[in-house]
Amino acid sequence: MPGHRAARVHPVDLSDLVKGKSLHVSDLKFPAGIKAVRHGTQNPVVVSVVEPKVDAVDAAAEAAAAEAAAAAPAKGKGGKAAPAAKAAAPAAKK
Questions:
Q1: Phi, psi at residue 69, to the nearest 5°?
Q2: What is the pTM of this model?
Q3: Measured between alpha carbons, how far is 16 from 48 in angstroms, rounded to an integer?
Q4: CA-CA distance, 36 to 93, in Å (whole number)?
Q5: pLDDT tens track of the chain, all 94 residues?
Q6: What sign does the dihedral 43-46-49-50 (CA atoms) show?
Q7: How many alpha carbons fall within 13 Å on the CB side of residue 30?
Q8: CA 75, 77, 79, 82 torsion: positive or negative?
Q9: In the Cβ-directed half-sphere of 12, how many Cα atoms lie within 13 Å?
Q10: What's the CA gap between 69 and 44, in Å, rounded?
Q11: CA atoms within 13 A on the CB side of 62
Q12: Could you tell me where the DSSP H helices lie in 1-94?
């Protein structure tokens, strides 16, 4: 289109956003002649800052990994891991 100037990249400073806050189209500063297209809403949200969701399975895996790391055997001489404890004796034969 003749005279059509669309910005390919429009940098946006998000450094002041904190959890629970949003950046709206009205907060953006566009170059002269550039306007935001708003589909049905007066001031749409561009970006929101929210706390990430933690899946129960992920939380359990992280807890298990932390527990395993805490229970890891201490290192012996020379920086090598101490020998592992012997496996439990097999069940008695009938």
A1: -65, -40
A2: 0.45
A3: 12
A4: 79
A5: 455 665 577 788 888 889 999 999 898 888 888 888 888 878 888 899 988 877 777 778 888 888 888 887 655 555 555 555 454 455 555 4
A6: positive
A7: 13
A8: negative
A9: 17
A10: 46
A11: 6
A12: 56-70
Name the one residue in this structure whose structure tokens are 């561009």. Answer: 46
How many CA atoms lie less than 13 Å away from 18 in the CB half-sphere?
A: 0
CA–CA dist 25, 51 (Å, integer) = 22
**Structural domain boundaries in the chain:** 16-61
Q: Between β-strands 45-48 and 22-24, what pairing exists: parallel, antiparallel or unpaired?
A: antiparallel
Q: What is the pLDDT of residue 58?
A: 77
Please name the residue that has the structure tokens 């929101």: 48
